[in-house]
Amino acid sequence: MSVILLIDDDDDIREIFTLFLNLEGHIIHSAPGGREGIEMLRTVHPDIILLDIMMPGMDGWETLCAIKQDPGTRALAVSMCSGKLPDLKEINQYGKYIEDYLVKPQELSELSNILTSIMERFIKYTTEIESLKNKISDHHLIDEFYNFQKTLYMLEKFSRYFTSDSEEIELDIHRYKTRIQEIHDSQGYPFFPGLLELKPGI
Q1: Angle at 10 between CA 8 and CA 12, to 5 degrees
Q2: Torsion of CA 99, 78, 176, 143, to 10 degrees
């Protein structure tokens, strides 16, 4: 059972997701917008935030930045969930802040398993980061390593959609992989992880 905060301005989406995820055993809190979601975080402590992007007033990216800039909420797991694909600029700018990006419509039968997988991955990386920071003095380097890993995951997940930017995205992927490997090599085996091994999928 997980505690999920759903921030989405679509009443139907909130109702359907809440009903289905409740049936799967999760506890769901929902908010109709970014400001309401941030206010709810004063009293709700979710395992993951499922965040829409296209919302009036305060969109999903603005909400994400507000969450990550607040010391009290910056460590929370966030996955975007939107009817639009991200563009290359958005991935490079925000990829480091999110654990995943789901594209609506989502198959309800798979939603619970997907969220559970995201949360398991988030816990694994959080544990790894805490362990590494007890062994390596340069904490900024560790954060950079995992931020680049997450951004790389997003780039590879959506790369097939960037047909007009194929050359640019290949350069970005190469740049992130090169830097990740440089950080890994500078710290050495056995306790520093290698490249992130994920199978990106929508």
Answers
A1: 120
A2: -100
Question: What is the spatial distance between Cα 37 and Cα 31, in angstroms, rounded to a whole number?
Answer: 5
Q: Which amino acid, one-letter code, is at 202?
A: I
Rounded Cα distance between 20 and 43, Å, is: 23
**How far apart (Å, rounded) are the C-alpha atoms in residues 117 and 113?**
6
Does the pLDDT of residue 161 top 90, yes or no? no
Q: What's the structural domain count of the chain?
A: 1
The enclosing domain of 98 has a CATH number of 3.40.50.2300
User: What does pTM read for this prediction?
Assistant: 0.91
Say if 192 falls within a structural domain. no
Other C-beta atoms within 10 Å of 70: how many? Answer: 13
Alpha-carbon span 16 to 3, nearest angstrom: 16
